[in-house]
Design goal:
Chains A, B: Pfam families: DJ-1_PfpI (PF01965). The structure is a homodimer. Chain A is of the alpha/beta class. Helices cover about 40% and strands about 15% of the residues of chain A.
């Protein structure tokens, strides 16, 4: 799992919680430097390996999204790392704008994929991917999830591919994942125009920087 | 927010993601010592304050659950810290077995509350709380959530109390929280007998240690 400054902590912690039981002790939290990495919500997660110390052959290569993702799209060292490990990984996965980082590394060219709703249709095609309005999208060995909380659904779907549906169901019950949000506002359609406008304002910088990064890579 | 060894990272990161926008810069991640605190899934979160450096008057005092929770129930320093801050906090909140730590500190005596399904009915009553089979339970200024992933629902419910429903809906849309788990196995009733037995085996140590801790406090 890749960590970087400005990642969204939940993008990573959601799926990791549901996948953690698969192979205890085989989790590698990699970053440019070992140590605390600040997320975009104020919590720091601890990176335990440098990029070059990550195993060459991974079962799952995972990339979270977050406010810091446009800088990662433009980072040659990050892109080279992802290309190298993705070439041998059994699964290549992302949550939220993590798919734009994969795309920037050339890893979604010709793949169906998703991302956060604020960039899905506007940025994914610039990176050669075909945007799909689904919560979790599998295409060959790529699996991408929609924004932030969609990582929990990706975690279960991937656990099922790796170890079977009953394993995934058990992880779901251990995490008591029977969601019951008090509102229906998780998609622009459900939230309505006014809430969507408020959310777009919060996300404006991220969507604009993502689009600019994608255009600069293409150009 | 209290951090301790063996906490479940998602218990804390879920609600924190949805509450983070309320008052940026006013988050205190407190633990016995400043520095990385290992969670029960292998990710460490960074504690930024010692217990005694936490502000005396808090808007929200929050306690996560996890495999390490029984040791916190029995820790006099943790219990004294929670009693002191809870006496002045506007809200006292927990996810999963975090409610058992609150209960061990005497903070749920006579309150309706919930916890992870594996301990809700068996342990909460030993601590003077009235167990309720709901995902998020409010009673006066106490708010407790069911297991692990229920923290997202608590985060939204608490955001709505603190800042209104439209604020919470906006946070929900930013986090794209329109959950669609690929299975229906988030409660024992939905999961069925076989999956529930497998999950109980994973959780057996936690439920037994929780019960023993509660009995020892009562005795």
């Amino acid at each position: 799992m890749l960590l970087y400054p400005g990642m969204t902590a939940l993008d990573l912690v959601g799926p990791q919680t549901l996948l953690a039981g698969l192979a205890p002790g085989s989790l590698h939290l990699v970053a440019k430097d070992v140590g605390p990495v600040p997320s975009d919500s104020g919590i720091s997660l601890l990176a335990t390996s440098r990029l070059d110390a990550a195993p060459r052959d991974l079962d799952v290569l995972f990339v979270p999204g977050g406010e810091g993702s446009p800088a990662q799209m433009l980072d040659p060292e990050i892109r080279a790392f992802l290309r190298d490990r993705a070439a041998r990984a059994a699964w290549v996965a992302s949550v939220c704008t993590g798919s734009l980082i994969l795309g920037a590394a050339g890893l979604l060219e010709g793949y169906r994929a998703t991302s956060h709703w604020c960039v899905r249709a506007s940025v994914l095609p610039l990176l050669g991917a075909q945007p799909v309005d689904e919560r979790v999208v599998f295409d060959r060995n790529r699996v991408t999830a929609a924004g932030v909380s969609a990582g929990l659904d990706l975690g279960l779907a991937l656990a099922a591919r790796l170890r079977g549906a009953d394993y995934a169901r058990t992880a779901q019950l251990v995490a008591e994942y029977a969601p019951r949000p008090p509102f229906r506002a998780g998609t622009p359609e459900e939230a309505g125009a006014e809430i969507t406008q408020a959310a777009r304002a919060i996300l404006e910088r991220l969507s604009e920087q993502s689009r600019a990064a994608a255009l600069s890579i293409r150009g």
